Amino acid sequence: MAEKSKEQLVQIDFTPPSGDWTDPRIDFEARKGSWSYPAAAKNLRYLGLPNPRDWSPMDADWKLPENWQQIIKDGLAERLAKYRSLKLFLDICVRCGACADKCHFFLGSGDPKNMPVLRAELLRSVYRNDFTMAGKILGHFAGARKLSPEVLKEWYYYFFQCTECRRCSVFCPYGIDTAEITMHARELMNLVGLNINWVIEPVVNCDRTGNHLGIQPHTFKDNVDFLVDELEGLTGIKVAPSINRKGAEVLFVVPSADYFADPGIYTFMGYLLLFHELGLDYTLSAYASEGGNFGLFTSHDTIKRLNYKIYHEAKRLKVKWLLGGECGHMWRVLHQYMDTMNGPADFLEVPVSPFTKTRFENTASTKMVHICEFTADLIHHGLLKLDPRRNDHRRVTFHDSCNPARGMGLLEEPRYVLKSVCNNFFEMPENTIREQTFCCGGGAGLGNDENMEMRLRGGLPRATAVRYVHEKHGVNLLTCVCAIDRAVLSTLMEYWVPEVGVSGVHELVGNALVMKGEKPRTTDLRGIPFAGGEVKPDA
Amino acid sequence: MRVVSSFLLVGALALMAFVGAQAGGEALLAIGLPYLAVAVFLVGITARVIGWARSPVPFRIPTTCGQQRSLPWIKSSPLENPSTGLGATARVLLEVLTFRSLFRNTRAELKEGGRLVYSADKWLWAAALAFHYSFLVVLLRHFRFFASPVPAFVMWLQGLDGFFQIGVPEVYLTDVVLVAAVGFLLLRRLADARLRYLSLVADYFPLALILGIGISGIWIRYIGKVDVESVKNLAIGLVTFRPAVPRGIGSLFYVHLFLVCVLFAYFPLSKLVHMAGVFLSPTRNLANNNRTHRHVNPWNPPIIGHTYAEWEHDYHDKLVAADIPLDGK
């Protein structure tokens, strides 16, 4: 936990320091708790990334390659020529400041360089210096900065202090997306060997074993079997998911945390119960056992490299279409990158729900359906027997995960599902949900322990909104459709609003689902008794 | 200070024009520089747009601000989350014509105990809109100098703008609004500590310049009235490429004209290119139809991840022991 107390953490001073922002110096020693450890050399070696070495941000010498400035300048030139987004976003910002207080890290820390506009200026000032006429001639007067070692260190600090949540982009009059700036800044830093281990190790794991957590296939099966046994104990029903089975209709891909740790496992149990009750012909894959993609926090090439497995495995298993579990950045990749990078998926069929016969025209090209779309369609057609009273011990609110909200627009589907499976649903204040949702504070690879103070600060806006509905409506469960959320929000709630738990949407589906042949159920999937003991299904 | 140097710079430019006009530099100020400035503007803006257009859009990355189009019974937001090209065009127009995103602006405040509250903050939106539209109307009104007879829409605009018929010559509403809005945007930058911290000379200079243009324009229209007939002759001469050096317009007119020239020339080199750039923003001008239509990356690199065959090779014995089917079995 953070060394500072809650009272200290909320003493936030939004007044910027008296000096000039162009001064890049950062005291990493004094700011422990607000930065992440660098990537281990062995992990860079595995991925073939440049400059593997042992180093610490607190060292004076970061052991950069001799010509690091040239490497970054060339890297920036290459990216400017490849990405209109980057070039345009570096050129057209007018520094109106509309984005300033939209960033959760700024709101939680008061650090002016966490204002999205200034975060981008850290890179823009170097771009000005090297690539624009005004910057070349007027230099500092035009807001240009030379790429000094201190500037690079400042990049490391602040571009690994952005969760790529895109909230600022909603408010920007030109749609300037700091996620895009951060992604490119991280790519540039990768070129000289600046990366964080919490991102790079999952990438290595995912490439090697199939998932971020490094779970090998036999353990994957063990974990699934364990959850199957748990479900049998709770419901009396033995569900039978298959792994790497050829010829199934559907390949189901989830974020690995869903079969690894509390509370994701309960969401996974919810999926399994639903599929069993429906009789869905699906398979899991131990090879494509990760829907999430930490490549998104590394580089575009790495996104592609990790994402490659999903279509590759779908083709090998000869499934007809793909279904994806609850995960935020996973869906940014599946929705906005997968088809472009690794498509076309012409070996698959346009997904049709075998139960409702709904043809998911919105996935005609990628052939991948979000589980909330799938379930909402089932409920809409009245195909599920649901008893929302089984969630009466829960007073529920919903946290829109950044990527499904702002990189997709999945807003109503999870709400429709939630309102069908529970009786007590309350929205958080409108400036904190839907497209204006606040990040959990630990996305984009920042959900590690060494970065805890910044996580708790960044999560403050979300926590404040949860506390509001907790106090007003007695909310005690924060639901979400994201694996990183489920992990990060749990810590966040424990710290800021300990009365509120965290769960996925399909955990509540699993609770409410009345199944054929189930034994009398008295507890939810966590073993917590239903309000009023056993809830008998209506006749 | 950045704001002071910006104003000093504009002051120096104004003084240069004033002195230049007095010293017989009318030909340069009235003919040479306007042609040069317009040329720089046109070539510069074109070059910038071509520069952006030459970089491809490898990924379709709209920022979605509303419900996606998914199931037919769920109402989607065709403007905030367009699923068609037409919708995306409408979204951009809404942005350009009404400053949709700025309209969303909120102000966050930290209350006791770390409670954050958000309230609507439309001031920036209102001032920005007032500034841009009044600037547009002022610009269009100036067409009365460049065309003879004056086009009907200019007459109409002029009538509307002088609707209140206050003073002689009648006061144009947009003159007042323009200066007031620019003044507000400037004061906002100065009053807000965060904005002051992040603002560059490149932020103050255009404001000072436009304020200078506005004030000098108002001066020569309402106070130090210049010979409008001569101005019109000059303007017509310029647009018909038969320019003649005017006589006796008054030096303050050249201050106004010179500052306008500076603005035109400065435009493509500065953040003011947002005027053209806003149309190209990939988070706004693309439809969120990613799962229905494949977006092609022209430089899609050939990357193959860890293949299934390699993976099966790596874990062969463990797969067998765990009874997970191997390929071909």
Structure description:
The complex is a heterodimer of chains A (539) and B (329). A five-stranded parallel β-sheet of chain A has the order 1-3-2-4-5. Chain A is built from 22 helices and eight strands. Helix content of chain A is 45%, strand content 5%. The model of chain A has no long low-confidence stretch (mean pLDDT 96). Chain A is mainly alpha-helical and 539 residues long. With 329 residues, chain B is mainly alpha-helical. Chain B has a single domain, classed as Transmembrane di-heme cytochromes, Chain C (Fumarate Reductase Cytochrome B subunit, Up-down Bundle), CATH 1.20.950. Helix content of chain B is 59%, strand content 4%. In chain B, strands 1-2 form a two-stranded antiparallel sheet. In chain B, strand 1 and strand 2 form a beta hairpin. In chain B, helix 8 packs antiparallel against helix 10. The N and C termini of chain B lie far apart (75 Å). The mean pLDDT of chain B is 95.
Secondary structure layout plus pairing:
The complex is a heterodimer of chains A (539) and B (329).
Chain A: H1 6-9, H2 41-47, H3 68-82, H4 84-92, H5 104-109, H6 116-131, H7 133-138, H8 149-159, H9 167-171, H10 178-191, H11 197-209, H12 217-235, E1 242-243, E2 250-253, H13 264-278, E3 282-284, H14 300-317, E4 321-324, H15 328-342, E5 368-370, H16 371-380, E6 396-399, H17 402-406, H18 412-421, H19 452-458, H20 460-473, E7 477-480, H21 483-496, E8 501-504, H22 505-512
Parallel strand pairs in A: 1-3, 2-3, 2-4, 4-5, 6-7, 7-8
Helix pairs in contact in A: 2-11, 3-4, 3-10, 6-10, 8-10, 13-22, 14-15, 16-18, 18-22
Chain B: H1 2-22, H2 26-54, H3 85-98, H4 100-103, E1 106-111, E2 115-120, H5 123-141, H6 143-146, H7 152-161, H8 173-191, H9 193-198, H10 201-223, H11 228-239, H12 251-266, H13 274-277, H14 308-314, H15 316-321
Antiparallel strand pairs in B: 1-2
Distance between the termini of chain B: 75 Å
Largest interface: A-B, 120 and 101 residues
Uncertain parts of chain A: none
**Class of chain B in CATH?**
Mainly Alpha
Count of helices of chain B? 15
Strand and helix order of chain B: HHHHEEHHHHHHHHHHH
Average pLDDT of chain A: 96
Output the structural class of chain A: mainly alpha
